[in-house]
Every structure is written in C-alpha cells, then in structure tokens.
Amino acid sequence: MTFSVWAPGKSQVQVNVDGVAHAMTAGDGGWWHADVSGDSYFFLVDGDETPLPDPRSSRQPDGVFGPSRRYDHSEFGWTDQAWSGRALPGSVLYELHIGTFTPEGTFDSAIARLDHLVDLGIDLVEVLPVNSFDGTTGWGYDGVLWGAVHEPYGGPDGFKRFVDAAHARGLGVVLDVVYNHMGPSGAFLDRFGPYFAGRNLWGPALNVTGPGSDEVRRYVLDNALSWLQDFHVDALRLDAIHAILDTRATHLLEEMAVEVDALAAGLRRPLSLIAESDLNDPRHVTPRSSGGYGLAAQWCDDLHHALHVFLTGEQQGYYKDFAADQALKTALENAFFHAGTWSSFRDRTHGRPIDKTHTPGHRFVCFLQNHDQIGNRAQGDRMPATVSPGVLACGAAIMFCSPYTPMVFMGEEWAASTPWQFFASFPDPGLAEAVRTGRRKEFAEHGWGESEVPDPMDPATVRNSTLDWSELDSPGHAGMFQTYRSLIALRRKHPELADPRLDRFKVDQDDRVVTLHRGRIQLVCNLSASAVAREAGEVLLAVGDVRIGEDLIVGPESFAIVAY
C-alpha cells in the first residue's frame, strides 16, 4: 500500500501509520512516497512534530486536526446503475443544508425527506458543502480538507447513500464546492508546499497562477472529478468564482469544464458546472467554441435583487439600484440588470450584456431566496416574515414562469417560519470570538444593531435555523406548498413556461402589475391595491383572451391559478 504526498522543496517527510513513523522517499515533481500497510495516518514535514492530515484525505473520522483514514471508494454498494443523469435545462433545483434540513442533521435523516421533494416536483437537489471543516456545525464554506466528507453528517458512506437514494427517486444531486479559499481553522496545506497565494475576504486563497501552481490546479481538478465520479454527483455549484484569481491564458474554470465534459462522455451521463459569480460576465456560460469558459450555468443575483425589491420594497445597500423604474422588467428580460451600467453600491460601472439570441435562459439560476440572501441578514429572516402569502406566491409564479432555471431554498415551498441564520462551532475560543465580532461589525455596516445579531456559536442558533416539518400540517403552510407544487406542475405541463429563448421573452411592468409573455400564455402578477386591480397579491395566468382569476380551471385551451 503506497502513501503519497506532494511536498516540494522539503528535506524530510515521514508518514505515521497506525502509530508508527516511516521515512518517505522523494520522487519526481516534489512527490514523496512510502509503501506501508495500515489505515490511520498523518504526515510529519521537515522534522516538525506537528501531525498533519493528508491534503487529499478521503476521510477524517476525528475531525480536521485528527489523522486521516484510508478509504476505498470501490467498496460502496451502489444501486444506481440505471441512472442516466439529469440535465440542467428545464429542471427545477432545491437547495438544502444537511445539518438543518432535519432535526437529526444527517444524510440518512435527509433521505427520509426526499419523497417530499419528488412530490413537490424537484429535479435536482443542491446540497451545501459537505467537506470536512473544524467543529460539528457550520454552513460548510470553511472547509479545509475538500475530499473528506463531514463526519457528523455521516461521512463518505452517508453521502453516497444520500446520492444513491436520490437517484433511485429520479433526483439528481448538485454539490456546492468551495475552491476560492480555505477555512480559518485547520488549513495546513501551506506546510506542504506553495498551495496558498495571499488571502481574500474569507481566508487563504489558492495559488493557481504562480510558481508551483500546476500541482495546486491539479489538486482542485482532481477534487472536482472525484465528487462526480466517486460519489456519483451530477453537478457542482462553484462558490464565489470571482474570488479565484487566475491570470493564466486558460482559466482554471475553463480547464475544469473541459475535464468535466470529458468525464461526462466517459460516464455517459450529463455533468454540469454551475458558477456563483459577482462579475455579471456572460463569458462564464458562453461555449468554449465562442470564446467562453463553457460552464453550464451561473447564479443570477440581479434577478433575485430585482424581485426582492419589487416584492418587499427594501432598498438598502446593494438593493438601492433595483428600486429604479422598470428594474424588474430589465432584469427579467436581460438576466443582468447591471450590464455595463452604473452600480451605485460599487461606485462604478459593472457587468456586461449577454447575447440574448445565442444565450439560453436556462444558463441562469434564479431564486426568491437562497442560503446567502437569507443567512446574511442579521436575523436570518425569510421572505414570509416580510411579505404576505399572496405576494410570495406572485414571486414564485414569476420565477417558475420565467425562462430561467428556478431554485427553491429548503422550506420556502411551505413558507417556513424558521429563520436561517449564520452559525459555526469553532472549538478555539479566540477564533470563535473573532467570528462573533466580525459578524456584528459586518451587520453594523449594513444598519443592523449588535443586539439583532444572533450568536453564531450558540447551539440555539442552529436549532432555530432547523426546519420545522410539522408546519406542513397547518393549513396556511400546506396551502403554500400546494401553490409551489401547482406552479412546478404547470411549468412541466406547458413547454412555453420553460422556453429558455430570451429573444422571444417579453415583460410588461406597469407600476405594481407585471405581465410575462410566454408564447401563447401570459402570466399577470398584480401587487397593486388600486381600484383597477382585482386584489393585491393576485396571480393570474391567461391563455389567449381567456382570463380567469378565482379558480383553478383546466381545459384544452385555458387554465389559471390564483394563490390566496
């Protein structure tokens, strides 16, 4: 059995296996090797007695400061041999966090709720990061060992059971991965070699451009491919790609897209890369043949911001620009509101327009709520805390009847009353206090008082953020669930509602009344309380000249749904 580790420029590397230290032999390219039998291991570099886990560890049963453990991917008994994958176009996504999706906070308990997602009409389940991070609870974006699955969730076998169970129900799985930074606790990679190149807002940034970066890039690419091949994941959501500083001629993301497409051909199932980006740059989702990176899709915050302002009236911070007249129409028709235009929040022009003739809408993921837009509010309050059920239903109708790829955040479908707040559980007292102070300062800059910010280290914050599934038994929450389910079913029944052609998509915005023209179908959402309007919060679907506003009527040529 061979243990290997990349540690260029080091004079001595040892591997301690099951309590016994063994000298490693230097090989080509800065790699060290040792043939030893055993399962539990860590490395010692240049005589330093600090035990270091394997940067490419597949399992960390005792946390990120404990020894790594051998793990054989071939030993898991998959049952999804007939799974042919799930393509992104036409699909509906559902974002969830394993630790707060159920009271138990494990993969196995999440499996018990997958039938709920099938009933709702979901196609792809997007899971927040499951990589190993310090502590027991957290959002997952502070991971430091990207190939090891967080043990409190159920470890690697638990995640494989989750993916296998999802595939058995016809659900694809999207995994959120973080390649723009390492977490603040347990980031030991720089002890081995030139993995890091400065810092960004969240922590150490990876060296993907400077000397020694070839192997660092390979580290990232191999991790991405492992999730797709070894864990049978169908897509990756790439966190904050704008923070990946790559000045090479071929960007890391383009290189990743090339390798993922090659793997998809070999596995004979679609594999997708979905980016989160603050750049409003259509090149990310432009095909490589046209000079782009070739990613399948990207999150579209502008659509969220325009919808949020239209539905809630909030205008603080980066929402300010989206209070402009016709802002929702602009964002809906163009995906980007800022497309080479002035951004007051940034105090500069921002973005670049998309080519609506050649760029399909399914390349942009739209949402009313997501983990960031809820969790980065001081109280972690969801939209139902601000707007009426009817207004929320209007927003959902716009999202599901748009040409974009819709995504639902866990509990949104029943207007969950539980907040989703920022939480972590760093054991180090100094780091824990630094995180508390940092969050309070950040929220203070956005106008929230210190008393409004929950303690992210308090276990009660996690409990408060956990879904209360019993809410589905109450009429109001059950009614919203039926609305979401009906809208998704409507999208599937009528291809016009999922048509991604942006050059054929037209929106009318007359003050608080918005009309989406979807081929022969019109969606009218009325948020006005004027005498002309029927009722504030009305959702009206019309086919041709037939407009029905009170009941769900299904016929060969007409249908309508009104929520609340």
Descriptive notes:
The C terminus is likely disordered. The N and C termini lie far apart (64 Å). The strands form 8 sheets. Strands 8-9-12-15-16-17-20-21 form an 8-stranded parallel barrel, surrounded by 4 helices. It is globular, with a radius of gyration of 24 Å. It has 564 residues and is an alpha/beta fold. α5 packs parallel to α6, α7 packs antiparallel against α8 and α10 runs parallel beside α13. It has 13 helices and 28 strands. Its EC number is 3.2.1.141. It is an enzyme of class 3 (hydrolase). Keywords: Carbohydrate metabolism, Cytoplasm, Glycosidase, Hydrolase.
List the helices and strands and how they pair.
Layout: E1 2-6, E2 13-17, E3 20-23, E4 25-26, E5 31-35, E6 40-45, E7 68-69, E8 93-96, H1 98-101, H2 107-111, H3 114-120, E9 124-127, E10 131-133, E11 143-149, H4 155-168, E12 172-177, E13 196-199, E14 204-206, H5 213-229, E15 235-238, H6 252-267, E16 272-275, E17 297-299, H7 301-312, H8 327-334, E18 341-343, E19 348-350, E20 364-367, H9 371-375, H10 389-400, E21 405-409, H11 429-444, H12 459-464, H13 475-493, E22 506-510, E23 513-518, E24 521-526, E25 538-543, E26 546-547, E27 553-554, E28 559-560
Parallel strand pairs: 8-9, 8-21, 9-12, 12-15, 15-16, 16-17, 17-20, 20-21
Antiparallel strand pairs: 1-5, 2-3, 2-6, 4-5, 6-7, 10-11, 13-14, 18-19, 22-23, 23-24, 24-25, 25-26, 27-28
